Each structure stands twice: as structure tokens, then as C-alpha cells.
């Protein structure tokens, strides 16, 4: 079978012939139909350590059909339309028992810890599968697994968004644009997007933002009292700082973007206490988040297909990664389509 393999920084991703995986007792072999291209893939190419070691088949946003079942798998059938959660926890550690499975130290995710889905087939634990409704495209289901489920998890599960509250989204790229649309669907009041790119701001307005500003420091020009909820989707110390300064009294900021530098928090600790401000972290999503996102797509309440700006065949997966890295063509969301 074919697979897009990453051998290390400075070595190009190559589509190679590799053996078809053998299925373990509690595993499922998925024939991949589509896989989203994510910023995390680019982080690996730029030098961020790969949890599963190298070489590795990239791609952690897949959808497809069940091709083969392990001997102990009874809840799925060959031919089922499925999408994959980023990973499923062990179910036994403190993180899992406290309903934080995406923080499980034993999390196993395709494209991060095990070979991923820029391939004809992907071998995964059966517990990571979610059913895809018949009226949801494979491309939409693939994007839903991370790009949509991640901001949904941040809004619904971590921040517990409230009806009518003001929301600011910092960074109107792939995740941020989906966060804007989801915030509106989940009942937000005024939604403000902040992004230096004019193209991104236009997309934000198209996704439902009531206003779009060039920088996070301008959020209070639209929301003088600050935002009840801020989603930071960039992952830079300065945007985290600006997000904190944009909070209303009693507000919450959810850090969705990934940053390796410590962010400066430019407020005295007393302000956080007196104003009851909260900083949350959010990583990936839970299985129920993806199920709910796919239901929203099936019901026509969100339009994931409309957010896909570029599509590539598997043979051109390296070019898809290069497009996201260079931002050439202003990609919103890129999908590698396989066997379609």
C-alpha cells in the first residue's frame, strides 16, 4: 500500500510502498477515504519532536470505511463509514477517570504515536472509531475529527459557552474560523475575530463573526467591557497576553493554540482573583465531541465542506503539506483524498 512517510527534519516527505498492516485482536483496519492536513503536521516538519518516533506515516484527521476487523471487535462491521478521534485514553488513569481522556499519558493517536492516515489504510484501536452519518461526506468527516471537534471541545466542554455571551476568537485560520461558526451555533452573542490577514478576516465575517479586527489588542474597540470568552487559536506568547487583556470581569480564556514558550500574563494575580478570571487549556477533543459535530453537519447546522479550500490526491500529499507550510494560495483547510 502507499503511505506518505516522514523521515526527519530536512528530509522530504515521500509517498512510499509499505506493507499493509496486520490487524490485532482489538484493532480495526480502516480504508482511508480522506485525511485533513493540520498545523501539527507542519510543526513536526519544522522540528517539533514526533511522539511515536521516526519514520512515521503522517495524518491524524482521517475518515474512511472499515476494511478488516480484529477477532475481538464486535461493535463494527466491514463497510461501516467511520471517522477517527485523535486518540482514546486508557480509561484507568486519573486523567481518564476525571473525564480528560485527551490528557491521558497513554494516549495513542494515528500520525502522532502510530502510523497515520496519509495512506491507503490505517490501523487503529477499535475504541477510536466514530460512525459517520450517510449524508456527511468523507472530506467533511475528516476535517471534523480535529479542525472542528477541537474548537467545539474548547467551547462546549472546557469553557461551557453561555447563551448570549460575547466571544473573541484570536486567529481566524482553520480552527479559528470553525470556532466562530460553532460559537454562533452554540448561542453566542457578539463574536469578534482578530487576525492580521485581510483574507482571514473576510473568512471570519463569512463564518458569522460580527466584527473582525487586525489585532487582538483591538478587541476592546468592539467589546469595551471585554469578552466573556476568548479562544486563543494561534499559539504565540503575545496573542495569549493580548487575549488575557481582552477578558471581561469573570471572563475565561481557552488556550487552543500550541506554544513552547511560556506566555507572559500581564496582570497581577490579584486581578485574576478579584475579577474571577479563568485560564483553561484545551487539547483535541473527546469522542462525544466528534459525535456531536458530525450530527451538526448531518443536520445542516454547520457547513464543513464549504471550509475546504484545497484537495489533493495521496500522491501529492507532500505538496499539500508544503502549501500549508508556505500559506501559498491562502489555504483555509486542505484535505488529502484517497481512493475516491
Instruction: Categorize the overall geometry.
Output: globular
CATH topology of the largest domain: Quinone Oxidoreductase, Chain A, domain 1
Summed up, the domain count is 2
Round the Cα radius of gyration to an integer and report it: 20 Å
| Major sheet details | 7 strands, mixed
Unreliable residue runs? none
The amount of helix comes to 25-40%
Number of helical segments with 4 or more residues? 10
**N-end to C-end Cα span:** 15 Å
Mean pLDDT: 94
Describe what you observe in this structure.
- Helices cover 28% and strands 24% of the residues.
- It is an alpha/beta fold.
- The protein folds into 2 domains: 2-146 and 284-337, Medium-chain alcohol dehydrogenases, catalytic domain (Quinone Oxidoreductase, Chain A, domain 1, Alpha-Beta Complex), CATH 3.90.180; 160-281, Rossmann fold.
- Strands 3, 5, 6, 7, 8, 15 and 16 form a 7-stranded mixed sheet that branches.
- β10 (191-194), α5 (198-207) and β11 (211-213) form a beta-alpha-beta unit.
- α3 crosses α4.
- The longest helix is centred in the middle third of the chain and has 21 residues, at 138-158.
Annotate the secondary structure layout:
Layout: E1 2-6, E2 14-17, E3 27-37, H1 39-45, E4 56-57, E5 62-69, E6 81-84, H2 94-97, E7 121-125, E8 129-131, H3 138-158, E9 167-170, H4 174-185, E10 191-194, H5 198-207, E11 211-213, H6 219-222, E12 227-232, H7 237-245, E13 247-255, H8 269-275, E14 278-281, H9 287-298, E15 310-313, H10 317-326, E16 334-337
Parallel strand pairs: 9-10, 9-12, 10-11, 12-13, 13-14, 15-16
Antiparallel strand pairs: 1-2, 1-4, 3-5, 3-7, 3-16, 5-6, 6-8
Helix pairs in contact: 3-4, 3-9, 4-5
Amino acid at each position: 500500500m502507499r503511505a506518505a512517510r516522514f523521515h526527519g527534519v530536512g528530509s522530504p516527505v515521500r509517498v512510499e510502498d509499505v506493507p499493509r498492516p496486520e490487524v490485532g485482536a482489538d484493532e480495526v483496519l480502516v480504508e482511508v477515504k480522506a485525511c485533513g492536513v493540520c498545523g501539527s503536521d507542519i510543526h513536526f516538519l519544522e522540528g517539533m519532536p514526533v511522539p511515536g518516533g521516526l519514520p512515521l506515516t503522517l495524518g491524524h484527521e482521517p475518515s474512511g470505511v472499515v476494511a478488516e476487523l480484529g477477532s475481538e471487535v464486535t461493535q463494527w462491521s466491514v463497510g461501516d463509514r467511520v471517522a477517527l478521534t485523535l486518540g482514546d485514553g486508557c480509561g484507568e488513569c486519573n486523567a481518564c477517570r476525571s473525564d480528560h481522556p485527551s490528557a491521558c499519558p497513554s494516549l495513542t493517536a494515528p500520525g502522532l504515536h502510530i502510523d497515520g492516515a496519509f495512506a491507503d489504510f490505517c490501523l487503529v484501536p477499535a475504541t477510536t472509531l466514530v460512525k459517520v452519518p450517510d449524508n456527511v461526506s468523507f472530506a467533511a468527516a475528516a476535517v471534523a475529527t480535529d479542525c472542528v471537534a477541537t474548537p467545539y471541545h474548547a467551547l462546549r466542554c472546557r469553557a461551557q459557552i453561555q447563551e448570549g455571551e460575547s466571544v473573541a476568537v484570536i486567529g481566524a485560520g482553520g480552527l479559528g474560523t470553525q470556532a466562530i461558526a460553532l460559537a454562533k451555533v452554540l448561542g453566542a452573542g457578539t463574536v469578534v475575530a482578530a487576525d492580521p490577514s485581510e483574507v482571514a478576516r473576510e473568512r471570519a465575517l463569512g463564518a458569522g463573526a460580527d466584527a473582525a479586527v487586525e489585532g487582538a489588542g483591538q478587541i476592546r474597540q468592539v467589546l469595551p467591557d471585554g469578552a466573556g470568552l476568548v479562544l486563543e487559536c494561534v499559539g504565540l506568547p503575545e496573542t495569549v497576553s493580548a487575549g488575557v487583556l481582552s477578558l471581561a470581569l469573570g471572563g475565561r480564556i481557552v488556550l487552543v493554540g500550541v506554544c513552547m514558550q511560556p506566555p507572559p500574563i500581564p496582570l497581577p494575580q490579584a486581578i485574576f482573583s478579584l475579577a474571577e478570571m479563568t485560564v483553561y487549556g484545551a487539547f483535541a477533543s473527546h469522542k462525544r465531541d466528534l459525535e456531536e459535530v458530525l450530527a451538526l453537519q448531518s443536520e445542516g447546522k454547520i457547513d464543513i465542506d464549504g471550509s475546504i479550500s484545497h484537495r489533493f490526491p495521496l500522491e501529492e500529499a507532500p505538496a499539500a503539506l508544503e502549501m500549508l507550510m508556505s500559506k501559498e494560495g491562502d489555504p483555509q483547510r486542505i484535505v488529502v483524498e484517497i481512493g475516491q
